[in-house]
Amino acid sequence: MVKYAIIGVEGPQDQAIVGKLLKLLGLKKFDGSVSNLDSFWKKFIPTYPKKGNFYKRLDMPSILFNDSLSVAIYVGEGSNLVKNLDDILSNNSQYKKDIAAFGIVADADKKNPEDVVAEYHSSFCKYFPNFPNRPGFVDINIPRTGIYVLPDNISHGVLDTLLCECGKIAYPEYIERAESYLADLSEEEKKSLKWKPFDREKALVATVVSVLKPGKTNTVSIADNNWVSDKTLLEVAALKKLKTFLIELLEITNTTN
């Protein structure tokens, strides 16, 4: 019997890193063919055009699966993650009993991880009364629920904070050169560019990506390159914590990584 799970993330890069981890844990990515889509997810696919507007993004999740598990990773467009997931859950409330796991992966940014969790807890406990109020914790009641706050459930930061640590292991020379280039920017220049907190980390990752995948997005590089790999999982503690969180949330067994 196949178990179904929903994971909500704030952006395409988060979707890519969760997807890459699930691939390393043995899941396959759905090929996009209508005929191959598990019938369970058909009711979760939004109509198009979205709300009558052709330019509104279609909220199609990324789906990964194995013989016993099917996971839909929804992108919530940053701060709209709660609203978008709330719409999905309220419109399909009759199928909530068929969800084996529900999780969130969100950025701490400048907030304390506990404060980030509090916001999501207040939003989703109406659907899942046991939704955790602690970062990185998985509640094992049915359905299993959990929230991971990037980069490590403890620190301020964003996904790119974690990717910088991965880059130091996977691409040390490119990271060093990128850091040297960005170090030449003066404080006046960064002020004129209106850099915000963690923009340096974002610029560092984007600079390396432009070498690895010229003309491609960070999302493509995360999926195709070695930011997330067996090597970075061994040496980057925060990445390993995220992998462990996914294993516990989804009850993934038979993994040696």
Q: How does this structure look, described?
A:
The protein folds into 2 domains: 3-156 and 237-250, Rossmann fold (3-Layer(aba) Sandwich); 159-233, no CATH class. The chain has 257 residues and is an alpha/beta fold. The longest helix has 14 residues, at 199-212. It is globular, with a radius of gyration of 19 Å. It has a 7-stranded mixed β-sheet, with helices on both faces. It is 43% helix and 15% strand. Helix 1 (12-24) runs parallel beside helix 9 (218-224) and helix 5 (159-170) packs across helix 6 (172-183).
Question: What is the strand and helix layout of this fold?
Answer:
Elements: E1 3-9, H1 12-24, E2 28-29, H2 39-42, E3 62-65, E4 69-75, H3 81-91, E5 99-107, H4 113-124, E6 138-139, E7 144-150, H5 159-170, H6 172-183, H7 187-192, H8 199-212, H9 218-224, H10 230-235, H11 237-250
Parallel strand pairs: 1-4, 1-5, 5-7
Antiparallel strand pairs: 2-3, 3-4, 6-7
Rough outline: globular
The CATH homologous superfamily of the largest domain is called: PH0156-like domains
Beta fraction: 5-15%
The Rg value, from CA coordinates, equals 19 Å
Distance between the termini: 25 Å
- Look at the structure and give the mean pLDDT: 92
Profile the largest sheet. Answer: 7 strands, mixed
Helix residue percentage: 40-55%
Structural class: alpha/beta
The succession of helices and strands, N to C, reads EHEHEEHEHEEHHHHHHH
How many domain regions?
2
CATH topology (fold) name of the largest domain: Rossmann fold
